[in-house]
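Methods — Computational structure assignment.
A single polypeptide chain was analysed. Its primary sequence is given first, followed by the predicted tertiary structure written as structure tokens.
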Amino acid sequence: MRLRRKPWARPELAACDFYVKDPPSYKGKWREFFGNNNPIHLELGCGKGGFISKLAADNQNINYIAVDIKSEVLGLAKRKIEKEYNERGIEIKNIRLMSQNIELIDNMLSPEDSIDKIYINFCNPWPKTPYKKKRLTHGKQLIKYKKFMASGAEIWFKTDDDGLFKDSVKYFEENGFIIKYKTFNLHESGFEENILTEHEIMFSEEGIPIKFLIAEYRIELPEAACNGTKAKEDN
């Protein structure tokens, strides 16, 4: 469904303290920008902010970067974050909103940023073959994420689309990720750390099972480096 234009969104975002106007200028400097060494988690396609507002408010010891390309939805996310934090009586310090084409996400993040977790919730499935490379879980994108992910970092991925989910499992495995957890029915799985999104509620009410996985990425040290480390330990 096409979101109606919201004339207030851009002015509100421009005046917002936690909206980042020029994300690429902070590439390699996100920890400095947050002002601490807390872990950094990233949501790709934050939409109206229902997920990230609750997650960030629940975890004040983690820094969150929430990305979407449309100012209309970012404006709604901004308001939802403010409402969530105000209701809890806490200051908004650990979250940043920004507009960025996710296909160019590596323009705003580098290895120095060392992202510990990425959330991808209900992204466009792009079912037709010519457009599958646009999927946020496609190998083309995973290669970019690996550039700024810490060793042991995870991608948490949710979708309603069977085809996208099955293909995504293959994408992750082909690109060196380890599937730590996988379910074709999240709400019946017993997984306890789930936070509902707007799309998730809608699809669940329609009787569509939610698919979910956790994929871990580990940076493999060169063999020479591994041997050097072992030799040092043996001495």
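Note: Residues 228-235 have pLDDT under 50 and may be disordered.
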